[in-house]
Amino acid sequence: MAAIALLGGSPEIARIVVPAPQAAPGLADRFVESKARGSCVSLIRRGKKKGEEGYGQGKASIAEGDDVLLDEERMVEHLMSCIEAPDYRPPTLPAVAVELMQLSQRADVEIDDVVKLLEQDSLIAGRVLKIVGSAAMAGAVKITSLREATMRMGLLRIRDIVMEIAMNMRVFKSEDYGDTMELLRRHATVTAHLSRAVCKFTPIEAEFAFLAGLLHDVGIAGTLLALADRKGKRKSPPDLISIWPAVDRVHQRAGEIMATHWELPHDIRFALSAHHQVMLQGHPHPLAATVAIANELAHELGAGVIPKAGQALSELTEEEADCVRAHTSVDRSGDKTLVHAREALSIDDKTMERVREEAEQVMETLSVEG
């Protein structure tokens, strides 16, 4: 079976690590905005600024106190400190998912190799059989074994299915941010399928498209999990009202870090780190461009990361939910980025209309399956 072809072989990109700011004892808290009904607010404690003595000596965690939050710039620094800290580790993926990713990049893989690997995790194996055996995938053919599932779907599709199962099991889950994680899970699934659909209208290989779409916003999930894990003496992590803009600013870098820890292929790492820019050394990257278009379509078709009007969220009051919904630019790409993406994939206006029609059909299928 042919190994996966890389889309451009993008190199690692050097990054500057942002140090963790140290809280300054004795400095008075300053009230930024009143937490009146219906307003998006936060109370912050000022820490050391860059250039001040003691900066970078602190622990990368959220300050103590029920409502002590940082303003956007300081929150960005804290988030970067958390995800770039030497001791940061993303959620551990199931061994089967990691090994299957490695296996899929070999040219000498036999079906028995795949089946033997899947059999090592009965939970994942059962879910694979359920998904592949569904009417949407199997049709009139009854799938009763992992061998039949692998023969029908092929190694790359099985790899994609297993990775989606792994993400739902280990990453898109949080007691503190449950509703938001469910929105992220849905958005990731839709974007993955739409990424594959976009490739039908381009000369780009679709081998990594599904995975890149599935993982493109994993940095948001990883950042929220890091906040929940490092809340220290706080009773709960920061609420979404105050942190959404900061999380949006760091999620691409966070995704790249997580993908590096998971040792994912370089092209997937770049797509995660630049799906809102798509440019690499002055040239658009095809996989990042594919994800950028799929991500925008997912938002347009109602599968974004921001709750829609009327959508009940157990985490937030209606007033707080309205504040979150006000962040309409979260996880969206600018017009110039989308132009670059379409140019990279040779998608003109007529083709884009066909892509949208295909995307709508995909959404209908996913709605039936869901």
Measured as a percent range, the helix fraction is 40-55%
Instruction: Report on the biggest sheet.
Output: 2 strands, antiparallel
Rg to the nearest angstrom?
A: 21 Å
Q: Span between N and C termini?
A: 32 Å
What is the CATH-assigned architecture of the largest domain?
Orthogonal Bundle
Shape, per Cα inertia axes: globular
> Main sheet: which strands, in order across?
1-2
What is the number of beta strands? 4
CATH structural class of the largest domain: Mainly Alpha
Order of helices and strands: EEHHHHHHHHHHHHEEHHHH
Work out the helix count: 16
Q: Name the beta content range.
A: under 5%
Which blocks of ≥5 consecutive residues have pLDDT under 50?
1-52, 54-69
Chain-averaged pLDDT: 78
Q: What is the count of distinct domains?
A: 2
How is this structure best described in words?
This protein is mostly helical. The protein has 2 domains: 92-170, no CATH class; 174-369, Orthogonal Bundle (Hypothetical protein af1432), CATH 1.10.3210. 52% of the residues lie in helices and 2% in strands. Helix 2 (95-103) runs antiparallel to helix 7 (155-170) and helix 4 crosses helix 7 (155-170). The longest helix is centred in the middle third of the chain and has 22 residues, at 178-199. Mean pLDDT is 78; it is low at 1-52 and 54-69.
Q: What is this structure, in a nutshell?
A:
By secondary structure, the chain is an all-alpha fold. Helix content is 52%, strand content 2%.
Give the tags.
370 residues, mainly alpha, Hypothetical protein af1432, 2 domains, two-stranded antiparallel ribbon, two-stranded antiparallel sheet, 16 helices, 52% helix, disordered N terminus
